[in-house]
Amino acid sequence: MTSALSAAPLDADAFRALLRRQAATVTVVTAPGSPPVGFTATSFTSVSLRPPLVSFCLDRGSSSWPTLERAAHVGVHLLGEDQHEVARTFATSGIDRFAAHTGWRYGPHGVPLLDSPAAWLLCRVTGRVAAGDHAIVLAEPLHGQYAQGAAPLIYHMGRYASVAQPAPEQRAA
Half-sphere exposure of 150 toward its Cβ, with a 13 Å CA cutoff? Predict the structure, then answer.
């Protein structure tokens, strides 16, 4: 069987269109600074259990990158299904995101912590890896908390959405 598929990588528009079909949890990552920074990300994932590690990606051309490039600690907030406006605020460029969103406080290490997410993690940054025009940031969770029964906010096909019925929580055996 011969293939007519090209060995060249997908162009950016085709790649974006393809990945829009993948549902992703919506997170807001925050870091201390003067002023503090925060941005909406759908690239958050768990990496390892031993030791606990998570990752997220950030465009190195973004206004948040200079602070994230130096940050020793970050907050990762998994947004709940009712937090569309929080996601939009932290996805909007050219505004003071913390002035526009007043539901937050300073936590340990000066990390801004948002009020009432479905879950949050306070993390120590352990590494940064250049990956194309982005950086993959690796972080070790130091503290965390979750709201029992909270349904996550997801991003799919260019829109915020929620799961129809969250799965019941189960403990691993």
Answer: 20
